[in-house]
Amino acid sequence: MSRERLYLYDTTLRDGQQTQGVQFSTAEKLKIAAALDALGVDYIEGGWPGANPTDSAFFDTVPATRATLTAFGMTKRAGRSAANDDVLAAVLNAGTGAVCIVGKTHEFHVETALGIGLDENLETIRDSVAHLVAQGREALFDAEHFFDGYRANPAYALDCLRAALEAGARWLVLCDTNGGTLPAEVHRIVTEVIAAGIPGNRLGIHTHNDTETAVAASLAAVEAGVRQIQGTLNGLGERCGNANLVSLIPTLMLKPPYRDQFEIGVTAEALEGLTRLSRMLDDILNRVPLKQLAYVGGSAFAHKAGLHASAILKNPATYEHIDPALVGNRRFVPMSNQAGQSNLRRRLAEAGLEVDPGDPALGRILEAVKAREAEGYSYDTAEASFELLARAELGRLPEFFEVKRYRVTVERRKNKRNRMVSLSEAVVVVKVDGEKKLSVSESMDETGSDRGPVNALSKALAKDLGRYQTAIEDMRLVDFKVRITQGGTEAVTRVIIDSEDGAGRRWSTVGVSANIVDASFEALLEAVRWKLIRDVGETP
Amino acid sequence: MSRERLYLYDTTLRDGQQTQGVQFSTAEKLKIAAALDALGVDYIEGGWPGANPTDSAFFDTVPATRATLTAFGMTKRAGRSAANDDVLAAVLNAGTGAVCIVGKTHEFHVETALGIGLDENLETIRDSVAHLVAQGREALFDAEHFFDGYRANPAYALDCLRAALEAGARWLVLCDTNGGTLPAEVHRIVTEVIAAGIPGNRLGIHTHNDTETAVAASLAAVEAGVRQIQGTLNGLGERCGNANLVSLIPTLMLKPPYRDQFEIGVTAEALEGLTRLSRMLDDILNRVPLKQLAYVGGSAFAHKAGLHASAILKNPATYEHIDPALVGNRRFVPMSNQAGQSNLRRRLAEAGLEVDPGDPALGRILEAVKAREAEGYSYDTAEASFELLARAELGRLPEFFEVKRYRVTVERRKNKRNRMVSLSEAVVVVKVDGEKKLSVSESMDETGSDRGPVNALSKALAKDLGRYQTAIEDMRLVDFKVRITQGGTEAVTRVIIDSEDGAGRRWSTVGVSANIVDASFEALLEAVRWKLIRDVGETP
Q1: What family does this chain come from, according to its entry (chains A, B) (predicted)?
Q2: How many distinct helices (H) and strands (E) make up chain B?
Q3: What is the C-alpha separation between B465 and B388, in angstroms, rounded?
Q4: What is the ipTM of this complex?
Q5: Is the pTM of this model over 0.80?
């Protein structure tokens, strides 16, 4: 049975840029466009040429793409023809194969925002779209506030679509601009639009996540007959974001009935790069990736409940809706007091530690984990610290070096210009191969500002580890999380540190103490030890 | 027209606890239960009594609630009767009004996970539910993997439901345990279940967000006839989380057709507390609240696009799907102070600072808040620090004393018994009434253990403030939260300190710095200043 083609339209670089706190550079836009092209979307909306220097520079420098590069703009302004509108001209000057222009379809907005008559708005749409077509471009019409407009005046909203269609628009995109329309309503209205004579294969859907249903509303629109979906990577976008293509793509490819009815431009191989792509965008935005993201999140295939974890060991299909490898993600069976011995061996195996089922060390490791968790430690995410703890019980934890003592001082006082400034200084004393090494570092960074006591300690610890020094040179602290928790009856501080190295490894370690500096030092030390096991091996 | 009652079942304390990295203490569970009860959910699932000490302690100490407190467990184990199952007995011993037990409805799981025959599983369900009913409890049956089971063998899945129904279960909850079922499929299967004779008003829905459609799937189930929705606050839960009640509640109350067809137990007034409730949970979890959350996120009513922002000023309905005040959220228009000023005056009045509408200080305060927030400060909860900032702009911030400098040292080394121990020592130099005072304190508590550098600093700061000393004697630091956040382009540490005094006041202050000790000291200092304004007044 032949499947129908569904088209994906990515607007990460335009609507995604409306996210609070997001401001892409031209270089970042180019990097994202290349990744989208490799993924296999059909359209890449690059921005609004002429609206700001970044977007203009993007269109000036973007190399040829397999996807149709699209410039965004709006219908011509009142009181001039489309051919004489300089804003529209700037959009066309970007020279893209497709141009998408947004226009009004809701009578309230025509009157309130544009301040023109309903007929004049129809003429505006017609003239603007016809102008794009006359310039040889593929024309898309973004029908702003379409669902609200249709509810208010269905006949007029449909007239707006017909005006664009008759003027030659390839796609009419039904936009739920305010994000308030729920999936069942989207389904009903799309069904009525198609029944009114607008062909489904000329319709697109553009939803927002203001009710946490943008993905479902896009699917509902597809079920009702639209054949283009607009969305963004990781659901970036104004307010609560746009429909998340990172969730939609695997659903369309892997889930019935979609996978059997439709075909999209993404290959199974490209789908395996989806998790990496999602994380890359977070890297560019300097955001910590959300663990709960559908398909690609770090927790998406994490099985914490003891009953689930033991069933997963028998057969992954018991508690997984897809194989995580299909989207480039992986299964994770965390340790916690709710999980039993059944998943311990699996977790050890993942760390390269094969242990026989009957080994009494298993019981000791579980006891050690439980005792540690009672003190405030948590091994859900700190898998590197878990490995070190297990190695200690298995007698497989090498002693590369010994920390004899450390001291860190934070001082705040007035500088010469009478301003309060602070500075931290750390001394760490280690013994490596029988030799005592004293290292001292301060917390000042290149810009002259104080990065605090943990930074100073981290630098002093990594300053001279003798023959192990080369192995830790490419280590980098990438995240640092602190929380106050309960250790027995006292409040203690738990620090989780994420580290990275030149080989692309990323690992998490934990430290706990009533003293926050101490907790941080413990996590730092564990990070170094884990790295040395990887690069030096078990026998130093 | 009378509306039909829909029931809300919250499982934040049970399924929500399956979130990777989440481990509630008993005290936190009690706090969340009280908040859920105030919100107006119908059922609060508190955990699995007997499964771990925290859950057992919760049921032992939880006070009476308006909502039906519910204990979670599973059907009896094979080879014994429900009456002789000690695991089930522990669940019943919690003494809750309702008990929810999970059981199998998917033939594959009956055979793979339980290893029993299909008929024996029906008998297991019947005996277990009947036992709950015989003990006088309201019985709920969580039909695990129901949708997968129904797809594999609809007749058997229905038989499982009927077994529970006939044994007296009040609710049969259709669980999409693996989270892979899409909304249209949920709608179809629920419709068929009801057509097969199971009454919709005995059915509940329990979805997971593995395809980012848990909220929509819950709505689809309601449309098909179920009358109970299970979910969690902020969508906590195993893997990608459960259906998010924080999104579902406003949709059910504010959006057609739901608001016209259904009634839930949440009042319009309680709905106004929803944003605060969502943030409270993040506070407990020490998570940075997600700005993009539907309804309650910090960006949910933020209008970044220039065209949108100017239209919003003319009429908020142009780009907002609901009034943000209905859910206790606020509009955020980055480029304009117009919207901010009335909120600001209300907030100042709450701190006892009456300011005239035209006062230019209002603009200065808004600017100061904006500048501070860009550095990483947050005044959402730190209302005492907000008051101090406003007082500075209003010229109403008394200078009780001046901190000239401080120094804190953390040292870790071996003690006489060859054990590693740490000790912190702090020196604080203040000037009060022209007199310089040096105070030194260490971090050792009564038990001889080190409480860390912030403790030492706090003690040194509060040791001698001259004639103000009596006013701060009854101050106590009750909570301390640390978060790594973004200050401009750099990661900085934000510390929030909660303080309490003998008069029962409780206040929060904030400090931000790349140096965690510095950030803590700033928050400590603000706490002392706020207290002095309360007890000494504005003119020292």
Answers
A1: Belongs to the alpha-IPM synthase/homocitrate synthase family.
A2: 20, 16
A3: 19
A4: 0.78
A5: no
